């Protein structure tokens, strides 16, 4: 029977399973184990084929009904899965192992029953009606690029359609997952991969968005690792590889994202001998107490996997994944492939981290849920009181439609705190509004060296470069801005005025979001 399981899983992993019945009729227990294994691999389509084959030969018991519910859930038939939950609950004699997960299934159906779905090739995007529709083309392009790049890196391909679900707010994401709104708020976790699908909160759920396209790719890595290891890889390995490979879809090589604030947290923790143990990430980074702790955790595990990848290469990572799939501990798998004891691997990485040159100061920019924060909350993060006072006065003048006077106060704040991203963005915004785009460029570029995902700075830089007729730089900044906050109309408006194939589409989005083309 074990050989049959491995044979079936090899079909799933190679993407060659057909819907035809097996030549030799398997026992009922064998088929149910194969079905469960397919679900463990995150593959709903093969599970569905197995279920249909099973029901041709064997009765529909309560255990089979449970697997039927799970299979429908994994293939996106939430209505059918919810109906199956109600059927199970209606029969007091039916034992169920679904527990609280049954509530998640029903809540998913209730939450998504009015959603729209867009299908392209092997990809499905589910989203709430409204402005989230504008995300779909960018998401599909990212999914296609990620599928190609990650298959090259990991040697894994999905048989089932890859489903991305975009939820409009933190409450919706919490209802369809095991996350709580508190965990989302505390750690800034806005996405997860579970039950054979990718789930993200819309960028509109956060005050200034977040790197949502890279996050889609990040969750895609999780999906492939779930399949490749039958969901046996530990959290630290999953997160380390996902963070390392999340930019691979838009690059030709493997490299960590440039993130000075994460690098600084890692540097400080190493110097203070306060690095987290990898097992502290269990059961999820989302359950760590703060955004700082979550950021440090990601920085550690991705730094370790980057060092491993650089020294031992792609094939070593693939070999370790195979070992984990058949039940070997992840630490032992990585060590065995490298032919280096785990303690030596870990010790070498820790020394490398501790010997890094001092990182420039870069504070962690907290993710605020939209509706729970304003620009005044953002202002509170400005570290120097004198700069805060100038910005506060500038904000008062700006809201009273006095941009020139506001610019004077923002310039004073920038002089006091030239490395503060909030100050630089406010100053740049007022300088552009006052017809001085050239004055905005240097402060914005300085800010983006330390805070490369600060969406307001990227948006203002795109506008300033466009007004100075630096069209290539404007295109690059606008594209990066959309990859973080696609609900800011200005980057779309900038792209709509450039000689690009997508200019007409960007003009439509610009208009839809209420932007003005110059």
What does the secondary structure layout of this molecule look like, with pairings?
Elements: H1 2-14, H2 28-40, H3 44-57, H4 62-74, H5 78-90, H6 101-112, E1 116-120, E2 123-127, H7 136-154, E3 162-167, H8 170-175, H9 181-187, E4 191-194, E5 197-201, H10 212-229, H11 235-245, H12 260-271, H13 291-325, H14 330-338, H15 342-354, H16 375-379, H17 385-399, H18 403-416, H19 421-433, H20 437-450, H21 455-467, H22 471-482, H23 489-496, H24 503-512
Parallel strand pairs: 2-3, 3-5
Antiparallel strand pairs: 1-2, 4-5
Please tell me about this protein's structure.
This protein is mainly alpha-helical and 518 residues long. The chain has 24 helices and 5 strands. It has helices at residues 2-14, 28-40, 44-57, 62-74, 78-90, 101-112, 136-154, 170-175, 181-187, 212-229, 235-245, 260-271, 291-325, 330-338, 342-354, 375-379, 385-399, 403-416, 421-433, 437-450, 455-467, 471-482, 489-496, 503-512, and strands spanning 116-120, 123-127, 162-167, 191-194, 197-201. The chain has a 5-stranded mixed sheet. The longest helix has 35 residues, at 291-325. Residues 1-8 and 10-23 have low confidence and may be disordered.
């Amino acid at each position: 029977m074990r050989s049959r399981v491995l044979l079936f899983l090899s079909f799933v992993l190679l993407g060659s399973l057909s819907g035809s019945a097996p030549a030799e009729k398997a026992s009922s227990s064998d088929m149910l184990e194969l079905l469960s294994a397919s679900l463990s691999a995150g593959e709903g389509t093969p599970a569905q084929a197995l279920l249909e084959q099973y029901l041709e030969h064997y009765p529909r018991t309560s255990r089979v009904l449970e697997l039927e519910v799970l299979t429908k859930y994994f293939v996106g038939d939430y209505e059918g899965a919810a109906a199956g939950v109600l059927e199970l609950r209606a029969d007091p004699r039916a034992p169920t192992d679904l527990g609280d997960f049954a509530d998640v299934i029903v809540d998913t159906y209730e939450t998504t029953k009015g959603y729209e779905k867009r299908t392209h090739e092997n990809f499905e995007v589910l989203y709430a009606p409204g402005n989230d529709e504008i995300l779909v083309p960018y998401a599909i392009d990212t999914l296609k690029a990620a599928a190609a790049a990650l298959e090259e890196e990991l040697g894994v391909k999905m048989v089932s359609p890859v489903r991305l679900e975009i939820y409009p707010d933190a409450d919706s994401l919490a209802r369809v997952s095991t996350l709580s709104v508190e965990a989302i708020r505390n750690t800034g976790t806005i996405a997860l991969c579970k039950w054979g699908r990718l789930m993200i909160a819309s960028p509109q759920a956060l005050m200034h968005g977040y790197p949502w396209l890279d996050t889609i790719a990040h969750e895609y890595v999780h999906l492939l690792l779930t399949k490749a290891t039958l969901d046996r890889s530990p959290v630290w390995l999953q997160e380390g590889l996902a963070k390392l490979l999340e930019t691979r879809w838009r690059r030709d090589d493997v490299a960590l994202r440039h993130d000075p604030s994460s690098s600084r947290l890692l540097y400080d923790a190493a110097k203070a001998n306060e690095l987290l143990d990898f097992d502290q990430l269990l059961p999820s980074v989302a359950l760590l107490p703060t955004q700082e702790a979550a950021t440090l955790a990601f920085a550690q595990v991705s730094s370790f996997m980057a060092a491993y990848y650089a020294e031992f290469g792609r094939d070593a990572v693939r070999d370790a994944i195979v070992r984990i799939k058949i039940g070997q501990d992840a630490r032992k798998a990585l060590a065995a492939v490298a032919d280096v004891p785990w303690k030596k691997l870990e010790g070498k990485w820790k020394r490398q981290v501790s010997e890094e040159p001092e990182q420039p100061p870069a504070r962690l920019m907290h993710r605020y849920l939209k509706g729970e924060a304003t620009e005044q909350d953002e202002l509170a993060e400005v570290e120097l009181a004198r700069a805060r006072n100038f910005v506060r006065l500038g904000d008062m003048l700006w809201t009273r439609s006095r941009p020139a006077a506001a610019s004077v106060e923002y310039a004073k704040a920038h002089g006091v705190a030239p490395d503060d991203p909030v100050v630089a963005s406010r100053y740049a915004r007022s300088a552009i509004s006052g017809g001085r785009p050239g004055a905005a460029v240097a402060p914005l570029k300085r800010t983006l060296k330390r805070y490369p995902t600060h969406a307001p700075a990227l948006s203002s830089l795109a506008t300033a470069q466009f007004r100075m007729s630096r069209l290539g730089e404007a295109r690059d900044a606008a594209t990066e801005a959309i990859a973080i906050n696609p609900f800011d109309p200005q980057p779309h408006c900038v792209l709509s005025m450039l000689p690009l194939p997508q200019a007409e589409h960007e003009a439509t989005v610009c208009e839809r979001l209420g932007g003005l083309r110059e």
